[in-house]
Structures are given as structure tokens and as C-alpha cells.
Amino acid sequence: MASITIERVAKSFGEVRALAEVDLTVADGEFLALLGPSGCGKTTLLRIVAGLESQTTGRVLIGARDVSALPPRKRGLAMVFQNYAVFPHLTVYENVAFGLRMARADKARIAAQVEKAAALLHIEALLRRHPAQLSGGQRQRVAVARALAVEPAVLLMDEPLSNLDALLRLEMRAELKAVLSEAGTTTIYVTHDQTEAMGLADRIAVMQAGRIEQIGSPSEIYDRPATRFVGGFVGSPPMNFLELPVQDGKVDLGGLALAAPPGAGARVLLGLRGEDIALARPTEAGFAFTLKVAELLGPQVLLTGVAAGGQPLRIVLPAAGPLPPLTAGGDILLKPDPARLRWMNEAGKALEGSP
Ligand code: ATP
Q1: Quick one: 216 and 100 in the same domain?
Q2: Considering the domain boundaries, does residue 300 fall inside one?
């Protein structure tokens, strides 16, 4: 069993507390993305699992084995780190074959595995070159191929696609997902790119300031963010948050009365995804939105404006559907999808009973 268990792992660098006590279990064969803004502790957590950094307190298990005190090479995992360079004195072929050679695999197996990994990463034509003769993105692909060639039970990756252009990144993302799920590899993947995390992962752990804010499937994270931070970090555009006073168990969303959720205090935050807001017909109940800017984003139109007493709001409408006059300063009547209201308290924590 190649599950990964992180138990109450904390890390301080002198005065800097990089990780508070983190608890996290990655199931055998699961793909977990660690997602969060720069400096939130993602890389530190991954380096602790790898054994490249020691934790201040807590422990790490791979399967049932406590690996906390073991050096990286004894932990039985493969890794691709941003700064984990490929060996400059070896050819690309030798780099990709390296782990298999170390494991004393026979020549035929090495050749077959190198060929497979090279094809997957589109580096077949580069096998005889040395790393100095490669671009940054090509070198990064060699590092990924080297890790995949050994068919590891556990794979740790830190932004492994960061040096690739957008198209190649998209392609590699899909191929990585397919190959890792087929092989049943337990993977932790660090990224600050929410699209990448949403697309690749079985579950996402969203981190902020050395803590895990929420762990869940991509749709749980997207549809039911546990905090304002998660709603604002995941999704493009981010989730809207409107601050509303509660009176007689109701809030007034600029002309539209909504029942406040149980447990609401004097003020609540209403989280609304831009695509969960639609145009209201003149005969329907709706709230007023004043348009500032309209942008065409291919299949959708992004409208930026204000609602509920001048608070910023972004909505996304299908470009092919009926659209209001897109004049700056114009008022538009909107209605939220009642099943998709995400209520939070003033501190930005989801209230019980919110969908
Ligand atoms: P990024 O996406 O920018 O790589 P990250 O989420 O991976 O960020 P970490 O690299 O884990 O963040 O850093 C977490 C915190 O620990 C940051 O405040 C960082 O400055 C600090 N830190 C990391 N490594 C060290 C170190 N060797 N010495 C001192 N502080 C460090």
C-alpha cells in the first residue's frame, strides 16, 4: 500500500513558521494537488514528504512505514522538483534510464521504459543530447520522464509543467493524468495554478499561510468553498462575495429579498459564482446590477459592475444566449440561482445549511 500519511507536521525556519500542524492522508493511487498562493508552504510540505527537508514536529508515513527519519533515497518515491536539475554530464537517454539502472533493471526493460516515457513527454528526438543543449521546457520534460520511467508507487511533483508554453502544458497535463491513473501511482502535485489542480486532481488541498484551508474533490472545492479565501482563490473569475445586513431573517440584494440562512448574525456574506447569475425577465423578481465593462471571452461574456449598494460583482453569461444592451452605466436586472447561494459568516466561514 503506497498511501501517504502526514501527521501533525509543522515546520519553522527560525522565526518563520512555514507550516502549522498539517494533517493529510493521500490514498493509495490517489492524485492530490496542493494548491495555494506563493509562500503558503506547498513546497515545504512536499520537501518534507520527500525527505529533502526535516519537519520541526510530526511524522510522515508511506504505507504503514514511518519514513520521517529516512533519507530521500530510502523512502521509495520518485520526485520532480522545479530546481531538481537533470544530470548535466549524462545524455537525455541516460538521464531517463538513471533510476532503472540504479534498480539494476535489465537492458531490454530499460530500453522499453525509456522509449515509453520519452514518447509520452515528446522527447524521443532529444535522447542523444546533453541537458545543456536543451531548452528549459525540454529539460523539465526530461525530469518528468526520468521520474515516470521507474513506474514509482509514489510520485511527488512541484510545478513540473511550469516552463512549458500553454498548449504543451495542456497536452502534457492530459497525458500525465492518463498515465498516472492507469499506473495507479499515488501522486502529490504542487501548483499555484487552479486550472491545473482542477483538471488533474482527484482531490485538492487548498493551502494558505501554512495551513490547509479545505480538502475536497475539485467540484466540492469549486461549488462549496469552506471559506471566502477558497472561493476567491479557485475559479476564474473568482467567486463574488456580497456583504449584506440581516433584518427580520432576510437580506436585501438590491431589490430582491432572500431568506437569510440559519445561524446568520447581523451581517452575512453571500458567495455567488458569476455563472450562477442569470438575466431576469422584467416580470420576474430580480436585483439591480450596474454594468461597467463587458468583455467577450469566446463562448462567454464577462460583465463587471456593481450591485447591492455599490459592491463589485462579476457575472458570466453565455455569449450565444440573449444578452442585455452592453452599455457602460446601464442597469440590468439579474437573478441568482437559489440552489447555488453560498452563505458565509462575516469572518468568511461557510454557514451550516448553505448548499
Ligand atoms: P511558491 O509557490 O512561491 O514556491 P510555496 O507555497 O511553495 O511558495 P514555500 O516555499 O513552502 O511556499 O515557503 C513557505 C514559507 O517558508 C515562505 O514564507 C518562505 O519564505 C519560507 N521559507 C521556505 N524555505 C525557507 C528557508 N530555507 N529558510 C527560511 N524560510 C523559508
Answers
A1: yes
A2: yes
Q: How far is the CA of 308 from the centre of ligand 1 (A)?
A: 39
Condensed to tens digits (0 to 9), the pLDDT of residues 186-199 reads 999 999 999 999 99
How far, in Å, are 5, 20, 202, 317 from residue 48 at the CA level? 12, 13, 22, 44
Q: Does any ligand 1 atom lie closer than 6 A to the CB of residue 37?
A: no
Do 292 and 176 fall into the same domain?
no
- Domain range holding 279? 237-344
* CATH code: domain of residue 169: 3.40.50.300
Average pLDDT, the chain: 93
pLDDT digits over 38-89, tens only?
Answer: 999 999 999 999 999 999 999 999 999 999 999 998 998 999 987 667 899 9
Regarding the beta carbon of 36 and ligand 1, being less than 6 Å apart is answered yes
Q: For a pocket test of ligand 1, which of 34, 42, 83 has the largest count of ligand atoms closer than 8 A to its C-beta?
A: 42
Asked if residue 354 belongs to a domain, the reply is: no
* pLDDT computed for residue 83 by the predictor: 67
What are the cell numbers at 336? 441568482
Ligand 1 pocket member 194 (CB < 6 A): no
* Residue count (the chain): 355
Query: So what's the pLDDT on residue 354?
Result: 59
Q: Report yes or no on 244 lying in a domain.
A: yes
Cβ–ligand 1 distance for 191 under 6 Å, the answer no
- Work out the angle between the directed axes of helices 166-183 and 136-149 (0-180°, nearest 10): 0
Q: pTM of the full predicted structure?
A: 0.91
Query: Is 349 part of a structural domain of the chain?
Result: no
